[in-house]
């Protein structure tokens, strides 16, 4: 993961490498981290071998990195991405245009799944993928305050316990997934037990599976939506 400069007619545009694609970033947009590539690889693995026409939601999309990587690696995928702020949505749209996948990637703006109101996406998704904020508000005021020096608070602040967005994601994703569809998301170090409890409490998913980083620390949750029948 590194920054390069585009000198081909747009000098000064910083491009960031994420899963073999180069993304334009901005001052109010989260820089994708290496650990998020764990989530990206897991998501693409879940979609391997599925029929053309698969549908994916990339929630809290930021620069668009996860949804755009999926669209690039899975040519049959149709992706709907969403974020809350003007800057992230504008950046994600520029990246979709740059990468030539804007015909398969829709970037919407809104509060989580409210961004897709009126699009008739309920019950149709093969995958919902998300890298939500997962640092507690108190830590952002304390030992992790340096994160806010150059990146937006919205990208990090997960509420009092770091899991406020996860709670909403787990609850609301079930309505958009088809039976057998997958929910895959990132979480912070040491949050795996709370994540497992949230998923179990939802009663909409099969038992969670975790994907660990190189240090064998769980960082990604994968849960399959149950068939209500």
Automatic annotation (TrEMBL):
The keyword S-adenosyl-L-methionine applies. It catalyses: L-glutaminyl-[peptide chain release factor] + S-adenosyl-L-methionine = N(5)-methyl-L-glutaminyl-[peptide chain release factor] + S-adenosyl-L-homocysteine + H(+). GO terms for molecular function: nucleic acid binding; peptide chain release factor N(5)-glutamine methyltransferase activity. SUPFAM superfamilies: S-adenosyl-L-methionine-dependent methyltransferases (SSF53335). The lineage of its organism: Bacteria, Pseudomonadati, Pseudomonadota, Alphaproteobacteria, Hyphomicrobiales. This is peptide chain release factor N(5)-glutamine methyltransferase. The keyword S-adenosyl-L-methionine applies. It comes from Aminobacter carboxidus. Its EC number is 2.1.1.297. PANTHER family: HEMK METHYLTRANSFERASE (PTHR18895), MTRF1L RELEASE FACTOR GLUTAMINE METHYLTRANSFERASE (PTHR18895:SF74). Keywords: Methyltransferase, S-adenosyl-L-methionine, Transferase. One of its GO terms (biological process) is methylation. CDD domains: AdoMet_MTases (cd02440). Residues 55-137 form the Methyltransferase small domain. PROSITE patterns: N6_MTASE (PS00092).
């Amino acid at each position: 993961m590194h920054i390069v400069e585009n000198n081909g007619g747009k000098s000064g545009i910083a491009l960031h490498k994420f899963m073999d694609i180069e993304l334009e970033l901005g001052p109010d947009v989260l820089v994708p981290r290496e650990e998020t590539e764990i989530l990206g690889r897991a998501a693409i693995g879940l979609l391997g071998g599925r029929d053309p026409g698969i549908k994916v939601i990339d929630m809290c999309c930021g620069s668009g990195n996860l949804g755009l990587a999926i669209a690039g690696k899975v040519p049959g995928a149709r992706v709907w991405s969403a974020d809350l702020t003007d800057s992230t949505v504008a950046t994600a749209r520029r990246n979709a245009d740059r990468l030539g996948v804007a015909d398969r990637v829709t970037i919407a703006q809104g509060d989580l799944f409210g961004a897709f109101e009126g699009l008739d996406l309920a019950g149709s998704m093969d995958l919902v993928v998300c890298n939500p904020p997962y640092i507690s508000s108190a830590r952002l005021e304390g030992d992790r305050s340096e994160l806010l020096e150059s990146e937006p608070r919205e990208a990090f602040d997960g509420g009092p316990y770091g899991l406020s967005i996860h709670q909403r994601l787990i609850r609301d994703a079930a309505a958009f997934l088809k039976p057998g569809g997958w929910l895959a998301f990132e979480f912070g170090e040491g949050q795996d037990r709370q994540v497992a409890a949230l998923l179990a409490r939802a009663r909409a998913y099969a038992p969670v599976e975790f994907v660990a980083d190189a240090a064998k620390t769980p960082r990604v949750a994968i849960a399959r939506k149950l068939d209500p029948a």
